[in-house]
Amino acid sequence: EVAQAHLDRIEAVDQRVHAFLHVDREGAIAAAERVDRGEVTGPLAGVPVAVKDVIATRGVPTTAASKILEGWRPPYDATIVERLRAAGTVMLGKTNMDEFAMGSSTEYSAYGPTNNPWDLGRIPGGSGGGSAAAIAAYEAPLAIGTDTGGSIRQPGAVTGTVGAKPTYGGTSRYGLIAFSSSLDTPGPCARSVEDAALLHAAIAGHDVRDSTSIPQAVPDVVAAARLGAGGDLTGVKLGLVKEFAGDGSEPGVAASFRDSLEALVKLGAEVVEVSCPHFQYALPAYYLIAPSECTSNLARFDGVRYGLRVGDDGNRSLEEVMSLTRDAGFGPEVKRRIILGTYALSSGYYDAYYGQAQKVRTLITRDFQRAFDQADVLVSPTTPFVAFPFGSRTSDPYQMYLADLFTIPTNLYGGPAISVPSGLSEGLPVGFQIMAPTMADDRMYRVAAALE
Ligand code: GLN
């Protein structure tokens, strides 16, 4: 009944929202029946979940919202999908996103954008706008996203939902279609902090198939989320990043942030100012590191191994076929990143760009470590602006990149961060971000739950 109710809801609203690229009705019903018969038990038995289309699902179409992967059905499940099945969840289908997770609005999906359920003329954030919109529109109670520079948290913020980026290496990347391997982190999207923690716990933990997976026990995020529900934050120090102050947040976003901060202080938390002088270089460093890694990761889409192949008429060389396939198969933002990354890695430029960006990354990590000597968590708005109208930021890539101003430093460092709803500005949701030290995911859930 639960699975069917959500499939009905998708049927009723998804033509308008377009959160899903593929709905797996038969698979969902079959999984729900296995739970009904008692063949599958687990902490989330029978709970429906939607999965971002950048994650491999055996036999179920997986495109990363790109034409180049149209029709591809992976022969295997990602580790996190295996764990979702073992926990008893019922997978409803695959959610829309910016192509290969590059973007902040889902406008770069090759299959058309997702509409924000709060205002169908506005973006739902990105790249995981489909997962966040599915939650916000009650098409699914839980969804999986991936966060490379903010793609779980920023969509959470602009759709009034909860989105958490776990510690890098805390959730397995095996079976994720790689964008930027040193940053990509799968994590939960939900309507409450406790739900997010339950999903987080179900997918987290060491995986031998991911060489950067952390071989340590995951902190008890569910207990932490439940601890926070009572609200007592006596002794908890919230670090306010000085350099984020004059950052150009919309006035409504800044006001909502201050209100939430006050609410946390009323619960006993203390505010301390911290300085992170290198955060101002996070965006430029990210836009060298992420495109450089994507250039290498996307080399595999050559028209030979997967999906689309163009111009293979027997008269063309292999190189021509590859070139025609990649030209037809990749969208404009993906091409921009490949060109940027190829340039940054070119001989003679490597040290000036990629090498320099890696040094900046180290400095940002040190900023975080010093800040966490003074504060238990750092707090900021999740994104400087509320959901914007379609088309308003696509003509200038830099305007789009600004959406991740507050989320990207955490990815470069590797720690966990969560976005929780923090009221409205002009009728649209605003997100409050809580960042914690690596492997202190439980700490951010405790503060997040208190704010809820
Ligand atoms: N918006 C950022 C980008 O375009 C982050 C994307 C992500 O987290 N996948 O790269």
TrEMBL record:
It comes from the Bacteria. GO terms for biological process: translation. Gene3D superfamilies: Amidase signature (AS) domain. InterPro entries: Amidase, Amidase_CS, Amidase_dom, AS_sf, GatA. The keyword Metal-binding does not apply. GO terms for cellular component: glutamyl-tRNA(Gln) amidotransferase complex. Its EC number is 6.3.5.7. Pfam families: Amidase. The keyword Ligase applies. Residues 1-443 form the Amidase domain. PROSITE patterns: AMIDASES. The active site is at 52 (charge relay system), 127 (charge relay system), 151 (acyl-ester intermediate). GO terms for molecular function: ATP binding; glutaminyl-tRNA synthase (glutamine-hydrolyzing) activity. It catalyses: L-glutamyl-tRNA(Gln) + L-glutamine + ATP + H2O = L-glutaminyl-tRNA(Gln) + L-glutamate + ADP + phosphate + H(+). Keywords: ATP-binding, Ligase, Nucleotide-binding, Protein biosynthesis. Heterotrimer of A, B and C subunits. Belongs to the amidase family. GatA subfamily. PANTHER family: GLUTAMYL-TRNA(GLN) AMIDOTRANSFERASE SUBUNIT A (PTHR11895:SF151), TRANSAMIDASE (PTHR11895). Allows the formation of correctly charged Gln-tRNA(Gln) through the transamidation of misacylated Glu-tRNA(Gln) in organisms which lack glutaminyl-tRNA synthetase. The reaction takes place in the presence of glutamine and ATP through an activated gamma-phospho-Glu-tRNA(Gln). This is Glutamyl-tRNA(Gln) amidotransferase subunit A. It comes from Paractinoplanes rishiriensis. The gene is gatA.
